[in-house]
Design goal:
By secondary structure, the protein is an alpha/beta fold. Helices cover 50% and strands 12% of the residues. Strands 2-3-4-1-5-6-7 form a seven-stranded mixed β-sheet, with helices on both faces. The chain has a two-stranded antiparallel ribbon with strand order 8-9. It comes from Bifidobacterium anseris.
């Protein structure tokens, strides 16, 4: 008989929600790619449950089948969890108690039906005292969030699980592209983590330092997704026949990227944020940097690239370097190592970001793009991401 495997002393979060609400995207935003999908203790329930855990994550996530607005589908999910708990206990794993329930709600829905809440209440009868955190996915704007919170409160009001509802957290779990220069940046993931840990029993909350490091890692991953989307947009809007340095096409994209990253790190909420962000923008102004980048590319012997290709490379590279520099600056503030009131260090950081190393990367990208294949735009995007973006798990 194989030796019993003990589960780590961490909490268990059960995820319930209708199909299509974005549960998988939400779980990936919170847990990340460095995750093990476990199967022990789930014999006979693998079609109904997926259990995720990672050494860096302070809780285990138990994802159920689509919790459709019907009692049968809801009970299937609950029966699967019960089976998992019983099987795990037989294997000697005591830590199978459900500590928090994420109830995922589609933020684009016009209404959350009371029947859905009744089905939820029936489904969680065995966990009468377990706190519920409503995660409202696809909540893209401030008016949406206000409406979403009101919608959930109204649906829970007067039900027998109203007292279980501990928090309502609007979330954008990944960058949502609106058009070439407009994005809904990731938001609310750290708030969901905080609400989850606050609802956990005292012994499962972990240390403050470990939790901050975990949230910082998640922010880095989401920031990479936002910067990547902006790089793709930069390669598109930058592919103009006239020198990119003589146009203003990047200005809206630069501001969208910077503002999105600022919201992700909570930088925009501070009263000193405007001057701080202005300092980053001033150093990263595209028209100034583009002249140097284009000159560096033109100095490459034997290089023969169309003007639109050169402009696309320069535009995408500026967006990538600006985004990575901003993330480095925002992390300094987020972790308390630097202050937004002292602007000297952020100017120096951004100047270094666009120094000789930047010009060297741009030149290398241009050389690699020489004689590129059919999809030059995608090649440029891939080359720029590889050269500038950090890879976070």
């Amino acid at each position: 008989m194989p030796p019993s495997r003990q589960l780590a002393p961490k909490g268990n979060v059960l995820v319930l929600g209708n199909s299509g609400v974005g549960k998988s995207t939400l779980i990936n935003a919170v847990i990340g790619d460095d995750v093990a999908k476990t199967s022990f203790g789930t014999s006979g329930t693998t079609k109904e449950l997926s259990i995720y855990e990672s050494p860096s994550v302070p809780f285990r996530v138990i994802d159920s089948i689509g919790f459709e607005p019907s009692p049968i589908a809801a009970l299937r999910a609950v029966h699967a969890v019960r089976a998992w708990s019983r099987a795990s206990a037989k294997e000697g794993n005591e830590n199978t108690r459900i500590n928090v329930i994420w109830f995922c709600v589609d933020g684009t829905a016009a209404k959350l039906f009371r029947e859905t809440i009744r089905n939820l209440a029936n489904a969680v009868r065995m966990w009468k005292s377990v706190p519920i955190v409503a995660a409202v996915t696809k909540s893209y704007s401030q008016p949406d969030r206000e409406r979403n919170v009101a919608m959930v409160r109204e649906a829970f009001h007067g039900t027998r699980i109203e007292h279980n509802l501990r928090a309502i957290v609007p979330v954008v779990a990944q960058t949502y592209v609106i058009n070439d220069t407009a994005f809904a940046a990731p938001e609310g993931v750290a708030d969901l983590i905080d609400a989850t840990m606050e609802a956990m029993p005292d012994g499962l909350r972990g240390g403050a330092h470990d939790l901050q490091q975990f949230k910082l890692t998640r922010k880095r991953m989401l920031a990479q997704g936002l910067i990547g989307a902006c790089v793709a947009a930069g390669a598109t809007v930058g592919a103009v026949p006239i020198p990119i340095a003589d146009t203003l096409v990047l200005s809206p994209l630069e501001l969208a990227e910077l503002n999105g990253l600022a919201r992700l790190y909570g930088i925009d909420k501070d009263e000193d944020a405007k001057q701080f962000l202005d300092s980053i923008v001033q150093v990263g102004t595209a028209s100034v940097i583009a002249h140097s980048a284009i000159s560096a590319i033109k100095a490459i012997p034997g290089l023969n690239l169309a003007a639109s290709v050169v402009n696309a490379i320069v535009a995408a590279s500026i967006i990538a370097a600006l985004g990575e520099g901003a993330v480095a600056a925002f992390e300094q503030v987020y972790t308390g190592r630097r202050s937004m009131r002292d602007l000297g260090w952020v100017r120096q950081l951004m100047e270094e970001q666009f120094g000789n190393a930047y010009l060297g990367k741009v030149s290398a990208i241009a050389e690699a793009a020489q004689g590129g294949g059919k999809d030059m735009r995608q090649m440029i995007i891939d080359l720029v991401k590889s050269a500038f973006l950090r890879r976070e798990k």
